[in-house]
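Let's do one together. I've listed all components of the complex below, 918 residues spread over four lines.
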Amino acid sequence: MIDKRCSSAHEAVACVHDGATVMIGGFGSAGSPVELIHALIDHGARGLTVISNNAGCGRVGLAALIEAGRVERVVCSFPRSADSEVFASMYRAGRVALDLVPQGTLAERIRAGGAGVPAFYTPVSVGTPLGEGKERRSFAGRECVLEHALTADFALVRAERADRYGNLVYRKTARNFGPIMCMASRVAIVQARRVVEPGEIDPEVVVTPGVFVQRVVEVRDPADESALVREGRRYP
Amino acid sequence: MIDKRCSSAHEAVACVHDGATVMIGGFGSAGSPVELIHALIDHGARGLTVISNNAGCGRVGLAALIEAGRVERVVCSFPRSADSEVFASMYRAGRVALDLVPQGTLAERIRAGGAGVPAFYTPVSVGTPLGEGKERRSFAGRECVLEHALTADFALVRAERADRYGNLVYRKTARNFGPIMCMASRVAIVQARRVVEPGEIDPEVVVTPGVFVQRVVEVRDPADESALVREGRRYP
Amino acid sequence: MSAHTGWSREEMAALAALDILDGTCVNLGIGIPELVAQHVPPGRELVFHTENGLLGVGPPPTPGDEDADLINAGKKPVTALPGAAYFHHADSFAMIRGGHIGVCVLGAMQVSATGDLANWSTGEPDAIPAVGGAMDLVAGVGRVLVLMEHTTRRGEPKLVERCTLPLTGVGVVSRVYTNLAVVDVAARGLVVRRLAPGVDIEAVRACTGAPLIDGRDGREEGP
Amino acid sequence: MSAHTGWSREEMAALAALDILDGTCVNLGIGIPELVAQHVPPGRELVFHTENGLLGVGPPPTPGDEDADLINAGKKPVTALPGAAYFHHADSFAMIRGGHIGVCVLGAMQVSATGDLANWSTGEPDAIPAVGGAMDLVAGVGRVLVLMEHTTRRGEPKLVERCTLPLTGVGVVSRVYTNLAVVDVAARGLVVRRLAPGVDIEAVRACTGAPLIDGRDGREEGP
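Okay, and this is what the predicted structure of the assembly comes out as:
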C-alpha cells in the first residue's frame, strides 16, 4: 500500500542530510512551512543550500534556520523586507551567500527542474546586472538569456489538504511556490492542515498530483509565521 | 464590463482569418470542440495551419475541416488511428503537410509559447529521425535538442464550465491540451457546456484563469465526436 | 522646485488609472502604484493580477478580516473578487512573461530618455540586493507605466538621459506619471503630454535630466 | 520456432507486473502492455498514469458506463480510482520527462543489444508517421520495460544487434519480456534471465539477432 504519511514533522525531515539543497515554499509568510523548518532546525542538518522566494522574516522559520548557521547559500528573488535583519546581518558578515534570481525566472527554473527541461531561454534580465555573464541569444529579434533548471534534494512545502498518495490542494495565495517545488525536488516533504482519505479530494481539483510528493505530515494548527514575527518570537 | 460571451459558435469563430494558425484542443475525441470546428467550416477560413494532437477521426470535426481542404499543414503527434482515413488520403495526395512532433514536446512547446519562453532544451527525440536537423547540446552529460515555442492566432477549446471573465474548468481527461492552448493563442475561443456567473467557479479550482481566454460560447449539449464517428456522420 | 509641487500621489494614480482601457488585466507594483486600484473610472472594469498567484484582487479586507494566506505581492492582506482565480508561481509568471498582462504600473528610481528603468537597486555596496518580480514584469507586460516623484528627495532628476543605477530593463517604459507631468517615452525622446496645474514646462525641464519635447494638446503631433 | 511458442501474452504481462515494485507509478503503452494492470501481485499497489492527463487509472468501466471524457492514451474508456488526479498535457509530460514515472511498459518492433528501441514507425514510405508519446516516455521514465513477441510474424528477430527501423530512443530499454524469454539489456550485452517453460536457450538464440548471454539463476552473476 502506498502511504506517504509521517507521524511527525521531525520524522518527515529526518532524511535531510548535511549539504543538501532544500527548496522552501512560501511567499513571505503565506505558505511558509514553519513547523517543517523548525523540525529541520531541531534535526541539525547543516551546510544547506536553500532555494526560496525570500530569506526569512523575524527570527522564526527560514530566518531562524539561517540564524542557526545551517544555510551556506540562499537562492532567492527577494531577501529584503522590513523584518529580514537575520539574513542581512549574516550576509554582511559573509556567513551566507546569495544567488539573486528574478522571481519569474526563479519560478520557471524550478518548474523546468521538475519537468525535465534542463535549460530555456527568456528575455528577462537582458541588459541588467542580473543578466551579465549569461549566455545570450536572439529569438525573433529579441535578445534572451539562457537559464538553467533548478532541482533540489528536498522540498519543504505547506498545503491545505493531502491524502496518503500525496495529492495536494493549497489555500489561496499560500499556493505560490509549493506545486513547482514538489515537482523539482527528489523528496518533497509536505505539511498539510488535514490529511484525508483517498477520494476526499476531488480528482478535478488536485493541484499537486501525488506523484510529485514523497512525504506528508498533518499539522493541524500551523503557526501563522507573520503573527510569530509580529510577536517577536524566536526559534528555538 | 468584461464580457467574453458570444451568442453563437459562429459568432465566436467569425474572427478567424485565412492563413491563420489555429490550435485545436482534444485528445482523440475527448475535449474536441466539435461545434466550434463545424462553425469554422461554415465560416470558410482557408489556408489554415492546425496544431492539434491528432488529425481527426471519421468525417466530422477536424477530419471534416481537413476534408474541406481548409488546412494546409497539421502540426501533431499522432495523425493515425482506426478512423483517420481523411487525413491519410489528403496527406498521400499532397494536399496537407505534416509536422510530426513527439507528444510531450508538442505540449511543452505550446506551454512555452504561452509562457513567453521562446525555446528550451529537451532530451526527447535525440538519436531518432525526429531529432535530425535539430540543434544539439549536452547538459550534465545528457544530449538534448533545442525546441522552439509554438504560438497560434486562435485556439478552439472545449471546457465544461466558463464565466464571463473566461475562467474555465474542464471535465476529466477532456482537459488535455485545452489549458496550454488557451495560453499560447492570441485569441482563445472556448465552447463550454455551461456559462455561469462570476463566483460560481471556486477560485481555488479554476484551471484556466480568464486572462488566457478571449471568447466564450455556451454549447449546452456538445456532440460526442466518437459517437458521430461510430454513426458514420459527416459534416456539413 | 520641491518634489511635492503639483499633483498628489492620489492624483498621479488617478491619471494613470484614466489611461488604462476597460477590461485590461493590470499588475500594480508595491507603493504608489497600489493607489491606482482605488481610482478606476466608473464604467470600467479592470482585473488586477498579483504575481504571488491571484487574478481578481479586491480591496483590502476590513480590519479583523485579514487572512495570512491571502496577500498581494507587497505582502499586504487583500481580498479576492467573484470571478477570481488562484494559481502557482510558474503559471503566474507565465501570464507575465507570456504577454497576457496588459499593463503594469511600477515605481521607479530612474527612467531614461529611451525608456530604460531602474527600480530595484540603489547600487550601494552594502545594500541587500532584492529584485522580486520587477524584471519579469517589464520584460513581459505589454505596457509599463511608471508612477514616481519627478525628483529624488535631494532634488536630483529621476528622468535622465541614461540611468546611473542598475537597470531593471532596457527600453521598457511607455509612460511616466510624476507629480509635475505626464511624459511619454517616444522614439524621438521624452514627450510631455500634460503638466500639473500651475506647473511651467521650463520649470519641469530644469529638474529633468534629459531633453523634454513639448507634446501637449495643440502644441505638437503625438509621437 | 513459432512466435506463439512459450508464454502467452497474459503470462508475459504477469511476469512484467511481478518486476514492478510496490508503490511505483507506471505508464502502460497501448496493446499488450495494457494487460499488466490486470496482473499486479496481491499486496502491491501501483498507480497507473495515462499521458492524456490522469494519474490513478482504474479498470475499464462496465459496459454502458463508458464516459467519452474519460479515456486512456489508447483512447479506450477507463475509470478513475479514489485518490486519482486529472491534469493537462504539459503537466502530464512534466511527470514523464521529469523522471517522476518509475516504470513504463511498451510494445516494440525492435530492441537492440544496447537497448535502442524502435516502436513508432515501420519506415515504409507510404506509412502515415505517428509518434504519440513514445519518445517522451523512453527519454523520461526511469525504467523502460518492453513486452513483445520474440519474432515478427514472418519469424524475423525483433531482438537485434542494431535496429533497422526508425528509433524511438537510444539505449533506453532495461528489460524485455517476450514469449520465449526475459532478457536484460546490460552493459555487456543481452542477458537471458529466464526462459519460458520447455524453451531451450539455443532455440532462443536461433531466433535472436544478437548474442545472448545466459544469465539464468545459478549460471552466472548479474551484470
